[in-house]
Amino acid sequence: MENLRSKCISLLEERGVTLDDIADCARFLQAEYHIDLKKEELLESVMSVLDKREVQFAILTGVELDRSAERGQMIDKDLEAILRRDEGLYGVDEVNAYGICNLYGSIALTNFGFIDKRKYGIIDYLNKHGKSGVTCNTFLDDIVGAIAASAASRFAHKWGK
User: Fold this and answer.
1) Domains of the chain
2) pLDDT at position 106, please?
C-alpha cells in the first residue's frame, strides 16, 4: 500500500490546499500566545498530525465524498444536493473533523470551533469557493480546520501554552 500520508498531502494539494496554508491557520490559532511565532515552526506539528492513520482516513473519506458530489456521481441525489449546498444543519462534515481533533484533546476541539467560526485563511477560501457551485468543499474546509487546530494543540502541549 502506498504511503497514505503522501497520498493525503497530494489529495490536499489537488484540492488547492498546501501544508503552508494549514501551518498558517495553526499559527493564527497560536499567535496570541506566541507573538513571534512563524508558520514554518508549525510545519512539524502539521506533519505529525498527518502521520496519524485516523487523520488519513478522515481526509480520504471527506475528499472522496466532496469529489463525488462535485462530479454528480452520488447515487443519492438528495444527499448530493445537500453536500453541494453545504447545508448548515448537515453536520456530518464537522463530525468527521472532530475525529481528527479528538486525537489532540479539548484544546484541539475548541481551536476547531474557533477557526471554523472565524473562517480564517484557506478555510475561508475553501468555504466560499465550495459555495460557488463549481466545486464542493463541504468536508474539506472542516478537515483543514481540524488539522490546523490539532497542529496548534500539539504545539501548545509541547510548549505549555
Assistant:
1) 4-12+52-159 (1.10.3760.10)
2) 95
